[in-house]
Amino acid sequence: MEIGRLVRTQPGWAPTAADRGRRRRPLALALGLSPCRVRCRAAAMPPPPPSVRTVSIPFSDLKERDGDLSRKIEEGLGPNGLGIISIADVPGFPELRKELLRLAPKVASLPEDVKKELEDPDSRYSFGWSHGKEKLESGKLDTFKGSFYANPVLDVPTTEDVLVRRYPSYCRPNIWPANHLPELEIAFKALGKLMLEVGLMLAHHCDRYVMQQGVGSYDGESLEQTIARSRCHKGRLLYYFPRKFSKSEEGGSVSSWCGWHTDHGSLTGLTCALFTRSSMEIPCPDSAAGLYIRTRDDQVVKVTFEEDELAYQIGETTEILSRGRLCATPHCVKAPSSENASNVDRSTFAMFMQPDWDENLKFPSEIPYHHELIPPNGTLTFGEYSERLVNKYYQGKT
Ligand SMILES: O=C(O)CCC(=O)C(=O)O
Ligand SMILES: [Fe+2]
After folding, report:
1. Residue-level pLDDT at 11
2. Whose CA is nearest to atom 5 of ligand 1?
3. Which numbered ligand comes closest to the C-alpha of 316?
4. Distance between CA 322 and CA 325 in Å, rounded?
C-alpha cells in the first residue's frame, strides 16, 4: 500500500529570497500557456473546473544531458508550476502502455480465490493484489479501485531476513499470477523499467535546476543518484471499477475515484488512463472525469496530457530534500458522472520512484510534512521514515 497524506492547502515553505521577488501569476501564465488553452465549458451550472495541459518536454530534448531544460522544469515543477510535467515521443512507450493497461481489468476479474493468493498482508498489501485495504479521506475503506503492486526491477530486493522483517513494504518479494496471467509479469516489468529510465533522465534535469537555484550541499541528495541507487521502486497497476451515482450522490466530487493525496516518495511516473465499457476501449465519456491537481495557489484543475505522453509528478521526499524548489503535487481522480458514463472503468499505471530503504536522508530543520517523525539530528533512512509514516497512518502511533 502506498502511503500519501491528505493535502495541505497552502505551500508549506517560507519564501526564499529568490521567491520573494516573484509575484504569483495566474495559472495559465505561470504555465506559459496562452489563456485560451485553459478551457472552461460554457454550462448553465456549475461550470466544471478548468482543464490544463501539462508542460511537455520532447524526449529528444530530455535525453540531452547538457541541454538546459530549467525553464520548463521550473514552469512544470517549480514553486509556481502545476507540479506535473509530461514527456512526449518516448520510443516504445505507446505499445508498452497498451499492453499493460489492457491487463488491468483482467487482473481485477481473476477468480476471488486466485486474487486472495496474490495478496500479501505482511507487506500491508504493498505487493500483489490490494483491494479495499486503503483508507480514504472519509475514513472509509477504498473499494472503488483495485491495485496490483510489484517492483519492476527486482523480484527479490534482499534475502536478508532482518531487512525483510524491518521494511516489509519494500523488501518482500514480488508475487506474480504465473499460472493465471503470465503475461502480466512481462508487460509490468517492461513498462516499469521504461518509466524508471525516463524518470532518471528527468531527475538529472531536475537536479540541474535545483542546483541553479543555489541549494547548498545538494550533492548527496541528487534526485538522479538517489533514484539510481534505490532497490525499492514500486509499480502500481490500477483498475478503477465502474461507479454508479444516484442523482443526489457525490458524483460531482472531484475525488470520487481516488481521494486527495500527495505521493510520499521522490518522483511518480503516470500513464494516461485507458477507459473501457463492457471490454470495449472508449474515449472517456465525461470530459470532467480524470486526474485533478490542486495548484500552489489553491485552485483545483483537471490535468490533461496526450495518450502517448508519460507524465511525472513530484513526491514529498523530493520537496523536502530540494528545500521546496520542486514541490509535491496534491492530486485525486474523478469518476465519470454523466448519464452515459455507467459501466465505464479506468485502467492506469503509476511508477513510484523512491530512495533506497538504506538511504540516509538529511531533513532540513523546517519541513512542511510529518515534522513530528524527524529526530532532533534530522537524519533518518528512507526505510525508517517510511515505517514511521505507515505507523502514523495505520496505527496512529509515531
Ligand atoms: O489514477 C491516477 O491517475 C493516479 C493514481 C495515483 O495517484 C496513485 O496511485 O498514487
Ligand atoms: Fe498518487
Report:
1. 38
2. 350
3. 2
4. 5
89: in domain: yes
Contacts 24+ apart (CB under 8 A), 35-38: 38/301
Task: Identify whether 28 is part of a domain.
Answer: no
Instruction: Say which CATH number the domain at 137 has.
Output: 2.60.120.330
Kindly state whether residue 25 falls inside one of the protein's structural domains. Answer: no
Q: Tell me the three cell numbers of residue 141.
A: 475503506
Separation of CA 72 and ligand 2 centre (Å): 22
Task: Give residue 292's domain range.
Answer: 51-356
What residues in the chain have per-residue pLDDT under 50? 2, 4-45, 219, 396-398
Determine the distance separating the centroid of ligand 2 and the alpha carbon of 235, expressed in angstroms: 12
The C-alpha atoms of residue 199 and residue 176 are separated, in whole angstroms, by 24
**Whether the complex's predicted ipTM surpasses the cut of 0.90:** yes
Q: Please identify, by atom number, the ligand 1 atom nearest to the C-alpha of residue 236.
A: 9
Instruction: Count the domains in the chain.
Output: 1
71 inside domain: yes
Q: Are strands 258-263 and 379-381 parallel, antiparallel or unpaired?
A: unpaired
Q: What is the pLDDT of residue 199?
A: 98
Q: CA-CA distances (angstroms) from residue 396 to 64, 107, 356, 367, 388? A: 46, 32, 25, 20, 10
Q: How many CB atoms lie within 10 A of CB 394?
A: 14
